[in-house]
Please model this.
Amino acid sequence: MSNPLLEFSGLPPFDRVRPEHVAPAVEQLLAEADAALEAVTAPQFPASWSAIAQRLDVATERLGRAWGVVSHLNSVADTPELRAAFNAALPKVTEFWTRLGADERLYAKYKAIDAATLNEEQRQAHKNAVRNFVLGGAELQGEGKARFAQIQERQAELSQKFSENALDATDAFAYYATAEELEGVPEDVQQAARAAAQAEGKEGHKLTLKMPCYLPVMQFARSSALREKLYRAYVTRASDQAEGEVARFDNSALIREILALRQEEAQLLGYVNFGEVSVVPKMAESPQQVIAFLRDLAARARPHAEKDVADLRAFAAQQFGLADPQPWDWPYLGEKLKEARYSFSEQEVKPYFTAPKVLAGLFLIIETLFEVGIRRDSAPAWHPAVEFYRIERQGQLVGQFYLDQPARTGKRGGAWMDDVRARWLRPDTGQLQTPVAHLVCNFAEGVDGKPALLTHDDVITLFHECGHGLHHLLTQVNERDVSGISGVEWDAVELPSQFMENFCWEWEVLRHMTAHVDTGEPLPRALFDKMVAAKNFQSGLQTLRQIEFALFDMLLHTEHDPAQDFMPLLDLVRAEVAVLQPPAWSRTAHTFSHIFAGGYAAGYYSYKWAEVLSADAYAAFEESAGQGGLPSVATGRRYRKEILEAGGSRPAMASFKAFRGREPSLDALLRHQGMA
Model:
């Protein structure tokens, strides 16, 4: 009986992977990787980039790919058995990568490689590798090295547990609402909630904390009591404030331990704090530079945010007689004010955004702008809802991707792109390996046999993840460690994703991706104009919210003492930045998976910084737009070549300057967000 996790000739056989395959596959691949590590670190083994790649990189790539399959399934098809298998293997896999990254024999081999023998891509990968050895503890000795390894293993366990608690706390909540309580909630949301209750043989409408349900209830339910119930459950998830049996998913102790371990890791490496470690491989020069950037942006956004709140308060008093709106009232009031001011509601445009039509429109813009073709393809998948596509240029395969759109139980929330394998001129076979990616979202499913309807926010999310996908898939770099998103500075990695979001506001693009679910009519121009008018509604508030998260993250990893409670710091940041204060029992940090389980520790500012880059990059398209506002293919070609195809083969600033001819400026971002 062959183990599907050990098949590397084609695409992963997701449909055949079972929990019992995990342990034997991981054992075998770790043994092979270990043998390869011993071979290349032997004194007689040559200090040659290609010789090391042939022996070691081939073995570690197989391990990485197989573990990637297991991790992916753990995120999108979580079961108790798979979770147990994943958690049993996690320490062993973490231990190997930590040991590899800290191996002084291997570090010495890399330092001995003559950079003059390398091509440009290899030189960049080599430079990154040497830097990563230092950050991986390769210069540590004795007890320090052993402790560093323990820290990595424990951090991996804690991050995984944090993620599980966030998922379980979200999945555990259900409230069965009556039709009266749901007055004002869009019909398709009510239908889905009714179907969910019926599937369990229950009365009423099953409400959950998953976004396709939670958000519309907060925006549209007339019942303030219902909104309060959901809001309280949502902002106390996985915290000490959660009520009832979900209290067992509290992440407080995990957060404290994660922060203490990061601080200890930084000090072992000779840095004052983890913020300093985090910026070493990024575009930012220091945590102080990041903090100054965030505070500068906050100062510019604050007057706009204060006006947003004043408008909301006046509207609440006049229209609803509410002198003191509560936190669970703001989304509802915001929606009502937007409708009143722009005669526009998200729900009015939603019937025009059917998932298949949006996807066709997205593919059309990619095909036009980047001169490729996207075709349906087939591959084994983990769920019947998963689609698979191939990207071609002039008949040649460029890359392939999986698309998993609907929300479901056992699938973690949010949206993300992940790589299945990277583009690589393989040193073992001499063949070019094409890249493959996952694009994962959490959208509502279609009801009554109709296609799924997306909100405009969902459309933006889809374009965003697709931007990450294109960065990974359109690369022309042959060196694995710097191809696609590999080796790209973390604070520049959001540039291509946020860049794609801009197209969701272009009439020439949007009109091709809308068709009313019942009539097939495209989105009317008048409705689009209202949508654009409402685009920057509350952009000041939204900017401050992002800055609140980013500043909290950076201060948490620079100025905070991990031995102390972190909530007072969050309160201080809110007092400094926020213009709307949440209740004292709000615990957003407890599900802040980006920084506690997702690689954005002391790096959440990346979203804001990348918005500066992406707005400025998109301005090049605005400046060169052709007839009818359609983006110029010549600019698209330049962007593809200098940003997407270059991947991580040179510093992000060099790629940006090659495309734009200068360094980035804040102006385009402020203009795009109506704050110029």
Notes: Residues 351-479 form a domain with the Collagenase (Catalytic Domain) fold (CATH 3.40.390.10). The first strand starts at residue 175 and ends at 177. The chain has a mean pLDDT of 96.
